[in-house]
Amino acid sequence: MSQGQYDDEEASLGENEDIDENAADNCDDQVEEVQEEEPLSIMDPAVFGLKEISNLGKFTVSSHKPGNGVEQLRNDELTSYWQSDGPQPHKLTIYFVKRVGIRDIRFYVDYNEDESYTPTKIIFKSGTSENNLIQFAAMNMESPVGWQQVPLTGVGGEPDGNTLVSWVLQMQILENHQNGKDTHLRGIKIYAFDADAVQPTEPDNSVDTSGLAENQAAARLDDIAQTLAAARLESSETGFSLPDFMRDAEIR
């Protein structure tokens, strides 16, 4: 083999190595993308003593495509969805039958399935009626897949300040991915504290009352003794003679 042929073969081998390295890098990138697209895992609300209160609300939407309305949003089937059919912002409004204390709000979106129909910018409002709603949260999402949790930190109610007190709750979808016009929302859940939930086991702080009766009896005897002493003092002043059983014992 000539020197020129040898050099050409080495160059060819070097190019093949570069191609293999690039292919490996591409595979790693694809794996990372797949990992990033896995649905977001959120803790079970029951773990925190929460129960769903979505049944206390009347759900309305600003628009919807026939066959893709509130019923499809609320049927607990993540394969179905609400699809808007009108101008932005797309609104989902919930009117509660009474004042509620909301501890958690979750909604389901799937960029892998919906692409340009997937929300990317959302704001949330709450109030006593639809005419006086106040924004309490905003979310910007990039290719979201799975259940998304609305931030409620510091919204006001309860000692920790993380309970949203509401009569009317509204979700406004301002923008979709790839400048999509209409939107898809596949589910929404609203949670409050469950008063009937089993509370975590607390240390036993009960007081041992086995000696309480004895202490109370001793206290009563002390009171009787003081009363008798007062009576004895009073009798000595008036010349009244105490019976023998009421006198102090004498050591003979």
TrEMBL record:
This protein's record includes keyword NAD: no
Assigned protein family: Belongs to the APC10 family.
Highest taxon above the source species: Eukaryota
Alphabetical keyword list: Cell cycle, Cell division, Mitosis, Ubl conjugation pathway
Name of the protein described by the UniProt record: DOC domain-containing protein
Entry's Gene Ontology cellular component terms: anaphase-promoting complex
Region Disordered, annotated ranges: 1-38
SUPFAM superfamilies assigned: Galactose-binding domain-like
Pfam families: ANAPC10
GO biological process, one term: cell division
Domain DOC: start-end pairs: 29-217
Presence of the UniProt keyword rRNA-binding in the record: no
Listed PANTHER family: ANAPHASE-PROMOTING COMPLEX 10 (PTHR12936), ANAPHASE-PROMOTING COMPLEX SUBUNIT 10 (PTHR12936:SF0)
